[in-house]
Amino acid sequence: MIGLQTRIRLRWRAGLLAAALTLVFTSIASAQNACPLTPDLSRSGADEAVIARDLGAMHGFAKLAGTTGGNGRGTFVVSNGSDNPTSPAAGSLRAAIEAARQAGGGIIVFENASASNLNITLQDQIRVPSNTTIDGGCARVSVSGREDISLFRLDGVENVIIRRLRMRKTTECQAGRDEDGVCLLEQDAVFVKAPVDKVWIAQNTFSQCGDGCVDIAAVDPVTQVMRATVAFNRFQSHNKVMLIGDISCLTIAKAVPDCLLSASAELTIFVTIERNAFVNTTQRHPKAVSRTYIHSSGNVLFTAPYTYANGRVGSNYGMLAASGARILSEYDIIRPLQIQRESMGIYALTEPRQAISATTYSEGPAATRIVGGNFLRSVTNVQNAPALVADPPYSDVVKPKFGSNNVFAAGRHAQCVLARVGHEPQVDPSVACR
User: Fold this and answer.
1) Residue 252 placed within a domain
2) Which pLDDT tens digit goes with each residue over 164-204?
3) Angle CA 128–138–189, to nearest 5
4) What pTM was computed for the model?
5) How far is CA 150 from CA 169, 408, 423, in A?
6) Do 249 and 155 belong together in one domain?
């Protein structure tokens, strides 16, 4: 049982952070629609040199890989919200994508729609070509689609940037639903399917994403290096946020020795998750599996349980590593929106994998290392084999500094992140926190 003094302390600390966040949400709601970004990229003929300078906001593995997107390959302008998969209209997003594909890549920008939002409802997924940037700039672009299609699919490509868009799914599903009410062919908002390299997904707003908001995954062993950065995004009102890794470790015929937790395992998927806000989300922030290394830094998680249509309550946790994956968490904040007796924060599976059928393994042990961070006492974190989780091979990700018990400094950091994330930030993310 939790004692009276502990309960009072938990509520006091939660109340301090809640008060700080109330100020942030109020100020964001009352902010003018003036775009805080410099420059405003949502104009026809945006200067490519200006866009190139904007790449300075990139950090982590995407920068280390040399991600440039469509820079230097021409600009394609979206001027309307129509979508026709078989005969794309001029000025539509799909027409701009196809033009970029034919040109070997390019930068896709949107006419400034400051008088009204530009809403694009996709009728089918968009396959993004290599060497492409999709940047909503200040045009307040919203991209939506059915639950049974991905919005953007990256499959066998490299050097892609997706920035400053709002992405969500409608409630339409043409494939039918299971007993939980989940669409039978539910797809992600952004699906990155191996082999893919050099990806930067930044400053977007995701909600009600279908399956995952951003999944970086494969069904076969990944043999070439994949590098990506997911930064300054706002994820809200969603269940399973991010799955990263290949699931071949669960298939006996495909599983390789590197699925086991060992110092000699060869990692192939490297992802930086930097200063994102997760609000009213439930699990997979991320879930990392197989030969995957995650560097998570300065993220803010406000988690909540998810109840399916039939009343079943799903899993609720912060980050999970399984089947040989590694997660390094540095100065992340996890605060359940519902103060429960106990909830899982950052943890790794520790039990050995087992054959659970003639063809399938269970998930096996993985490694986590936790540096700093701020958590309610009701949040349980599990470090496992931390010596196997190395520091990242870069130093450009700025690490916030606050102790695990310093709720005031953690609150200031949460304010900073919340004001800078999403497709309509209150403050330009390039402005450092103070």
Assistant:
1) yes
2) 999 999 999 998 999 999 999 999 999 999 889 999 999 99
3) 35
4) 0.90
5) 9, 40, 19
6) no
